[in-house]
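writing this on my phone so excuse typos. first protein, seq and then structure
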Amino acid sequence: MGGKLSAHPSIGVHRRVFELPPAQVSAAENWVAFGSRDPRSAMRAASVCLVREDAAGVQTYLGYRPGDSPLGSVAFPGGSMEHEDGTDVRWFGPSLRVWARKLGILDQKMVRSYIICAIRELFEETGILLAGTDEQSVAEINDDQEWMSMRESIAGQDIGFSTFLARRGLGVRTDLLRPIAHWLSPNFALRRFDTWYFSAAVPQGQHASLLRSKGRWAAWLSAREVIGKRQSQWLGELVGQHDTVGLRLSQITTPAVELILERMAQANGAIAYLSRVRNLGLQHPNLLERDGRYLLEIVSSEDDADFTRRL
């Protein structure tokens, strides 16, 4: 199905409909069978979409997430917010006040937690560290094994991310992040995230790699190729996991990931993608039942160019 679009000219609204991943069907059935009720609380989360130039446009880094993750079985690096993400750290780039305006969040402590969560999760899952000793520098990887050990320690909460930064005299380079989307998991989901998505380029001298203890699959892929083949089982077969083989893009990821990939595929290179002005309004998928099938519906206003533009 891959995000079929329909329009309602009388009310200026566009709708996109996406297939529901098989692992979520049971939760959807229970939600419908027992009627509307209060959804489970959503955990706060952040995700970072890495981009780099490709001969065909934009490449991005996708990875496999086991356990029916609210971010999708195939998703961008990211994860849930931790208490330690609220710790004060050296800060380079726009002030918290500026970031609060960008995200539309009044609580500046919450803004800091989202941004630190994004930078920490990116480092844990890929080894890309958006940090430096000043506003112009970025950390360099001199020893891959030492870097991996640090990632493992932070992921296992043996050492706090703020402590890791302080010991190396590093501050977070928040100017290297671009906010691109805000999504809330559908109400029926058993695990729900309130997720801010950011994008970033890979700093010079760094490279992405799987976390040794948790990673199963990750790769740089052309966004245009992923979107161009989304009606096939190509990506699911490439990932090669029990819950991806034989499935289409919409069945192994979330509408958030698929729509972000669409926008990457439309961009004329990584720089153009990173510099694009975006609508950062909250997106919240609705559950639909149609002919015995469960679908996710995304509704957008007519003036949301990012949402309505077609490939």
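second protein below, same order as before
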Amino acid sequence: MRTKRLWLPLLLLGFVVLVVWTGLGRGEASPQDNRIAIIMKTTDANSHYWQTVRSGALAAAKELEVALELSGPLRSIDSDEQARLLEKAIEQRPRAIVLAPIDEDALAPQLEEISRLGIRLIIMDTPLLHHRADSYVSSDHVEEGREAAGILAPGRKTRPVYAFLTSDEKSPVAMQRRNGVLEALPAGSAYNLGMINVGKSEEQAYRTVKSLTAAYPGMNGIIALTDIGVAGAAKALKETGLSGSVKLIGFDSSVPEIQLLEQGAMHALIVQNPFNMGFLGVQAALDSSGGSATVDIPSATITRANMYAPENQKLLFPFVY
């Protein structure tokens, strides 16, 4: 009787040993099936854009019943801290990593390690230029630039004379937006005054726009490729009495930009949907179909005339709805 009672436990023990031995024989531990790591550009509570991405990711994790580990540097320019956080995420071997890269070059060792280990990689917002990802989730930034060109010169009734402002000349997003504008307004049909880096200074943007309007009286447009410097540009246009004749066009929906739009100091905003970006980023991480895919999130053009439409209010103030 005792022999019969021991037979089943011994069989189960043997099965467990076999499973453990098989797992050890694979070398690398397999990725955890139900855990996703998201590393944003910043976790700063004052960043309207990235806090909305976070909300979308958390909503997806709840709906899809996945464990989510969300992190990011406090400063959106701290590529060293982002590299450290990415390294930490790789060590945990999640099912997938969703990343909004600050500086691709600074993350090169980690990106290569992700590829070597076979961890699924989803890129949000900023494209990779030299490394492969399984999915890219973002708006079409080139198309955003074309849209800005259409706002600057509707019907080409007047020849656009305009300048680009940026806070980061190396930003792939800014460059794609610029390329979209140049594609829609080729040389000969418009006069481009160039791209001016105002750094992180509203004062520098203010002085730059004052100088441009003085040097080029026929100037009729400013396209701010990043949200930094927009307030300085708007101040310069207001002081020179050019707020109505020089179109100030920006991207995204920071609080200062929304305020300027409401005041009539900004002509238009090309606004992404960061909530959808976070949500679809998590969704793409769970996709097991294989291959590389681009998940396009359409942007919206918001002006003072349509900013109070319900669908646009949801984009501008996602935490209220």
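Residues 2-25 form the longest helix (24 residues). thats all i got for now
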